[in-house]
Each structure stands twice: as structure tokens, then as C-alpha cells.
Design goal:
By secondary structure, this protein is mostly beta strands. It folds into two domains: 19-112, Immunoglobulin-like; 129-230, Immunoglobulin-like (Sandwich), CATH 2.60.40. 6% of the residues lie in helices and 45% in strands. It has one helix at residues 2-16; strands spanning 25-32, 43-48, 55-59, 65-70, 75-85, 88-93, 95-96, 106-108, 111-112, 129-135, 146-152, 164-167, 174-178, 182-189, 192-193, 195-198, 209-212, 214-217, 221-230. The strands form four sheets. Strands 1, 4, 7, 8 and 9 form a five-stranded mixed sheet that branches. Strands 10, 13, 16, 18 and 19 form a five-stranded mixed sheet that branches. Strands 11, 12, 14, 15 and 17 form a five-stranded antiparallel sheet that branches. The chain is elongated. It starts with a helix and ends with a strand.
């Protein structure tokens, strides 16, 4: 009986011209760098917004193009670029031209490499790196009055020239959205120059500190650097 019913279903599909491929939509697009040139080898993740750990993936070709078929469902598209910079491996999200979800009909989603800016939902955070600020035990200053100067040492992670940035903390503890690169940082509290070192280390405090963002500090943050100041 089951075989008989299956035969009827297949016959109806054949008569209507439907195929398995007709039941799938296509997600396609381009991956580009900041100047509009193609980025090859970018990982494209088509993530199911309902079921945990359920996704499809592909990679962009030499022209920066990709295409993947999706079944019926609720999906979001993401793009991740792997970059080696100063012997560190970074996983960086690219920026979508349209962050909206889509169904089994498919969609066009293009991605570009941005060094700064807020990531659109459902992602969170910023494309730039994070610097966290802490004080040496017993030294208590108003963190929001400390002025930090970041001088880029060479090109940034995307190969573009770096700049000198002057920043203060947004909440007394963090400086967000700094283009990922290698920097030398100095700090001033009012008229006083502070000394710096890597957080939670035995390094000697210095008036200037050169650092790379860490791709990951386990259980704490990604693409970040944690520093500590002293008088």
C-alpha cells in the first residue's frame, strides 16, 4: 500500500513538472574588499535561524562569487574572512549589504570588508578591535578622563595605511571599534603621563606599549587587547 501511494506522489510530481531541485532556492552574491576588489576563499555560512547548529556553507571563488542552494526554512547569511596578520590568524565578519533573513526562496547577499562600524543584527559588536582598560591595584583614577593615543605601526590588517587615533573609554573600561592593526599606545591622565603593560602580566610598565589585537582571549573576548595602567 505504501509503495502504491509513493508511486502516485512521484507520478503527480512528474506530471506537474516539479523536481527536487525546484524545491530549493538559491543564495548568491559577491565578497569584496574595501576598495571593491573580489575576495576569494571567504566562508559563506547560511545559518538556520530556528534550529541550533544547522547551517550550510560554501566559499567564494576567485571572482569573489558564491552560490548555494537552500531548502525551505528560515535563514541568515554570514561571511567570514580568515586573515593572517603579524603571524596571528583572525576570523573577521564581512558586512552584508542586506542583513535581513530569508526563506527557501533564496536571496542575493553581497558582503564587503569593513574595518570599523557596528555589526548589524543578528550579529553584535563592532568590526574593529576592542581594548579593555584596567588599573594596577591601588591606583585609582577616573578612567573616562584618561586619553589614549594609538599610533599604527605599518599597514592595517587589510593592507591599508594606519593612522594616529585619540580615544577615551566609552564606559570607563573599554575602547571599541579600533581598526585591527599593530599599534603603539600611550596614555595621559590630565597632564600626567601613565605607564602601561599587558593586563594580568608581569611585564614591566612602560610609557609606550606596542601590541597586536589577540584573535581570541579564551572566555573573554575576540579581536581584543587588555591593558593595565600605572602612575
Amino acid at each position: 500500500m505504501k509503495k502504491y501511494l509513493l508511486g502516485i506522489v512521484l507520478l503527480n510530481m512528474a506530471c506537474s513538472g516539479d523536481t527536487v531541485a525546484d524545491k530549493f532556492g538559491v543564495v548568491s552574491g559577491k565578497t569584496l574588499d574595501g576598495s571593491g576588489k573580489p575576495l576569494a576563499g571567504v566562508t559563506i555560512l547560511i545559518d538556520n535561524s530556528i534550529f541550533f547548529n544547522s547551517h550550510l556553507s560554501t566559499r567564494s571563488d576567485v571572482n569573489g562569487s558564491y552560490m548555494v542552494t537552500v531548502p525551505t526554512g528560515a535563514w541568515y547569511a554570514f561571511a567570514q574572512l580568515k586573515v593572517i596578520y603579524n603571524n596571528l590568524e583572525y576570523q573577521l565578519y564581512l558586512h552584508p549589504d542586506n542583513p535581513s533573513g530569508f526563506g527557501g526562496e533564496g536571496a542575493i547577499r553581497n558582503f564587503s570588508w569593513k574595518l570599523t562600524g557596528e555589526k548589524p543584527a543578528p550579529l553584535s559588536g563592532y568590526y574593529g578591535g576592542l581594548v579593555t582598560i584596567d588599573n594596577f591595584p591601588g591606583v585609582y583614577l577616573e578612567n573616562d578622563l584618561i586619553e589614549f593615543h594609538f599610533t599604527a605601526e605599518g599597514n592595517l590588517v587589510d593592507g591599508s595605511p594606519g593612522q594616529v587615533l585619540t580615544r577615551k573609554t566609552s564606559d570607563g573600561n573599554q575602547i571599541q571599534d579600533i581598526p585591527i592593526g599593530r599599534y603603539t599606545v600611550t596614555a595621559h591622565y590630565k597632564t600626567e603621563k601613565l605607564k602601561l603593560r599587558r593586563w594580568n602580566s608581569d611585564d614591566v610598565f612602560q610609557e609606550s606599549l606596542t601590541f597586536d589585537f589577540q584573535p581570541q582571549i579564551a572566555g573573554q573576548c575576540d579581536n581584543c587587547f587588555k591593558l593595565e595602567y600605572n602612575k
